[in-house]
Amino acid sequence: MSMARILETIRAFDGVLELAPSEGSAFPQIAWGDHFFYYAPDGQVPQREQPYATITTKNYPGDERCDLDRPDRWRLNIHIGTDAFIDVIGQRPRTEPTSCDYTATDVVLPHPVYRTQGWVSITNPGATTHTVATRLLRQAHDDAKRRTERRSTTRHRAVDHGSAGDR
Predict the structure, then answer these.
(1) Which spans in the chain are helix H?
(2) Contact 87, 66 (CB under 8 A)
């Protein structure tokens, strides 16, 4: 599965906002070439929400175990939450991790840094992980959409109740 195919899959989701920092952009140089995905149908980066998926194309400080600085390596990262993490990885995110070969490709692994927050990663997704990656991306997108809609509903209720009390 190529990065282009992953990008095509995610870009087809309704309400997706993709940030793809590039050279000369306002984003830090370390983020250039990476991709960050949010559910944001208004086209604005959510102020209180992390991306639900990312693609990283290089090592970041403190996140070198996947060896992404080697040629043609990249990693898909997906926030799947506790329940899905248990289903996919077979452990709770906050348990002591078992030993992983983070340099392995086309394998769903706990994220090397954000495991405890319910993130998984796949370095160079391929035929083995295509179906599960697509399913997890869809689920992460739908979860982000539900969180956004729930916050929006709660915010509108609070405004409506405040207005009624002011009369």
Answers:
(1) 3-11, 81-89, 130-165
(2) no
Quick one: which of 38, 49, 48, 47 has its CA closest to 14? Answer: 38
* Backbone φ, ψ for residue 136 (5° rounding): -70, -35
SS3 41: coil
- Give the pLDDT confidence of 91-116 residue by residue, as tens digits: 999 988 778 999 999 999 999 999 99
Alpha helix ranges (H) inside 44-126: 81-89
Q: From CA 58, how far away is CA 34, in angstroms rounded?
A: 8
In tens, the pLDDT along 127-148 reads 999 999 999 999 999 999 999 9
* The 3-state secondary structure of 74-89, one letter per residue: CEEEEECHHHHHHHHH
* pLDDT score recorded for residue 107: 97
Residue 77 CB neighbour total at 10 angstroms: 25
The stretch 77-98 carries a mean pLDDT of 94
Q: Report helix, strand or coil for 47.
A: coil
